[in-house]
Amino acid sequence: MNLGIRAILYSARKWKKTLLVFFLLLAITTLVLSGLAIADAQEEQAEELRGVTGTSFTVERNLSTGGWTSGNGGSYSTQEFISDEMLQEIASVDGIAGYDASIVSMPYYFKETGDSVVTTGYTNSFYTYGSINTEYNDLFVSGRFELVEGSHITEDMTNGLIISRERAEQNGLEVGSKVVGINDPYTDDPEVDMEIVGIFEVVADKNDEATMYDASTMWDFSNYAFCSKAAMEAMCVNYGDGNKIQEADFYVTDAAQLESVINEVQSISSINWNNFIVTANDEVYQNISSSLSDTTALVTTLIIVITAVSMVLIILILSMSIRSRKRETGILLAVGIAKPAVILQYVLETLLIAVVAFPLAYLSSKQVAGTLGTLFGKAAENVIVTPEHFMLVAVVGGILLVAAVLVSSISTLRLKPKQILSQME
Prior knowledge:
This protein is α+β, with helices and mostly antiparallel strands. The protein folds into 2 domains: about 5-50 and about 290-425, no CATH class; about 80-255, no CATH class. The chain has 12 helices and 13 strands. It has helices spanning about 5-15, 15-50, 85-90, 140, 165-170, 230-235, 260-265, 285-325, 325-335, 340-375, 385-415, 415-425, and strands at about 55-60, 70, 75, 95-105, 110, 125-130, 145-150, 160-165, 180, 190-200, 225-230, 245-250, 275-280. Strands 1, 4, 5, 6, 7, 8, 9, 10, 11, 12 and 13 form an 11-stranded mixed sheet that branches. It has a two-stranded antiparallel ribbon with strand order 2-3. The longest helix has about 40 residues, at about 285-325. The two termini are about 25 Å apart.
């Protein structure tokens, strides 16, 4: 009789054992496929994380290596400032997505009617960043502020202004409104014409522990403003070093490459790095990345444990089954059927079960994976079992099942037919 037919007939006759192995393979394969899908979702999340955590590095003046002098305003450092050329050189390094550098002051703004743009503070001054690219200002990158109308200030803007929705509504201003900025209206500081190009909304409370400390605690977030760097320089023209850049933030496209980007930046020979300090800002990425790595390790460990335990169970079940078939095995060997053919029959019996169990596990895992993924903090729709997962599990699973059959057959098939039959007498 053909060994394939013998395998089918035996599987049908021993249907209880067949069902036991079937459900075991179904459960194991479903769990392993779900685990692989969760691991892939974890990896995709990690990839996304590398580009969206606002990972950056700060370049600032190193006051400890500069000299000091005194003036009308007291002592001040003579250390060199960050120049526009220096910013351009650093920004040109591969891996840098964008940057922002600001000059901070507290100017006043006036409408075309001459009326002051009022705030909720005891003065009508705004805590203003004279920015190069507000999109990369920490307040926007961190999510504390969100631009809700208009556009961000960019490097090519010379007179743009962004204010909060609260102050815009309070003063009847909107995108396109013209204002005049004066650093100190009680002195001979120049008037600078500006146009509101954007309006932001305060998302986070400055007193919330989740936000970073800001030295300007006397200004509510709604009294913040952002203007073009050129406009701020024009307003602060009477203040010497007050209109120069002391630090800049550079954001990288891939958080995992932050260290290599910093190393490349510090290799720029035209910059005297003795005069500047470079600080990496990747705490958020490192914390989240560590958490994701722990979860990935846990998922991988579970897959390995499930596979190992399952292999042991399958080997035990097959060993018991093969030992119970000693007479059948002895007869087959006695009539001249070679041991490899007998083993092949056992293999076919197991693979016939797997051929049914694996596809059903693929279908069931599509339903189970999302539910299990939520236990690891994943959105169910992001945990997807793919055909690639199925092919991997089917191939590796098939190999492991063949190995299990071989291991289970060793104790019986190492005997000669006469020895096997004598043990059954």
